[in-house]
Amino acid sequence: MNRFGIGYDIHRLVRGRPFFLAGVEIPAERGPLGHSDGDPLSHAVADAIFGAVASGDVGVHFPDNDPRFRGMPGPEIVRRALEIAAELGFFPAQADTVVVCQKPVLSPYRSGITAGLAASLGLDAGRVGLKFKTAEGLGPVGRCLAVSAWALVNMEKK
Ligand code: MG
Q1: Any residues with CB less than 8 A from the CB of 157 and at least 6 apart, and which?
Q2: Which of 16, 44, 78, 112 is a good FRET partner for 71, with 20 to 30 A between their CA atoms?
């Protein structure tokens, strides 16, 4: 049996914060603001995992007022989401993702981010899609005030 989940996340970009995507630090003037490390790609993937197994969302499992989750790395949130899915008998088979970011240009980091995502999911890189889009200068993402991410995860019952 296969189930699919979608996930979405957006974080404000502010000066003085590191910019992590799937646990990979990207050199940037501004980074995502957040209670955790603000990694929108990992958070979208975790929400897709929770969606596939109909078990709440990142906000339910990792409340942003809980000091235990302060600064928590994105891949750790994905790993914990996978633990919850595994308790229900589901394991990742494939993921596809989109990161929408005006600046910095992310394409130089594609293989590193793909590898980080694959590692956090326990999948081969050949089962992990990653696309980068700008927002064509439109809206808060286009004005470099935010970064957003989308994910679809296919979970298999074993
Ligand atoms: Mg988030």
Answers
A1: 1, 2, 3, 89, 90
A2: 112
Instruction: Report the pLDDT value the prediction gives residue 48, as an integer from 0 to 100.
Output: 98
Q: Token pair for residue 63?
A: 């409340």
List, for the chain, all residue ranges whose pLDDT scores fall below the cut of 50.
none
pLDDT computed for residue 158 by the predictor:
87
Separation of 3 CA from ligand 1 center, angstroms? 23
Report the pLDDT value the prediction gives residue 64, as an integer from 0 to 100.
87
39 Cα to the center of ligand 1, angstroms: 6
